[in-house]
Amino acid sequence: MERTHVRCYRNQGQAAFRFTAGSRCAPRAFTLIELLVVVAIIAILAAMLLPALARGKERAKVTRVHAELHGIGMALQMYVDDYANKLPPVRVNCNTDMLMHWCQLPTELAELRYLPRSSDAGREANMEDLFNPGHTYKYAAPGPELLNDMPIGNYALWVPTNFPNLAGTAGKYYNDPKTTTVRWVVWSMGPQPNSPKTRSSYAPMSSDSWYRRTGDSGVIVRYADREWRQFKSP
Description:
Elements: H1 2-12, H2 14-25, H3 32-82, E1 90-92, H4 107-111, E2 138-140, E3 143-147, E4 150-155, E5 157-160, E6 171-174, E7 182-188, E8 220-225, E9 230-232
Parallel strand pairs: 1-3
Antiparallel strand pairs: 2-7, 3-4, 5-6, 7-8, 8-9
């Protein structure tokens, strides 16, 4: 009797049995509401993580800039040692195609292999500013200046009067390498190259124009004092 009942159950409910068994084996799909909830959670997590990733990327680039400015500083010191304490001239241009390449890194450092050389116009030294693509890091020093590769006198570097503190906007211009308080300065235009802080007329030697923290604008600086000791911005 029990066997007949089972057989009858199977015969009469075969379709239902197959359906039930299939339902137990097949995975249950997400509903639209559940899918939207998952997408919303992912979006919230991404919004929380992306700023942190961006800050980390910026700090990594700043660290690399400091390392490359240090290398340029060492190249300048080797040049000075080899050429009787004389620094390369500062270059500016008024030609339209070269106007933005003011204070490029000295051609001499590339020609004499103190720095890697590039074939790009306006970027003879292959040391591109990470925050200002297409341009080298900037270089300035009280002393000889070239305009379109022609001598025009001495370049004047603005330095705060409270040196070595460097804070504030009170200062003076030095164009004589024998009397200046700062021998040379090299700098990056920083994460926001066109910001008012970066383009300040007191940059790069006023610490008020320096980059200081993630998300900030301002220049990233390395310089040497009268004793050729090197210092850097934060």
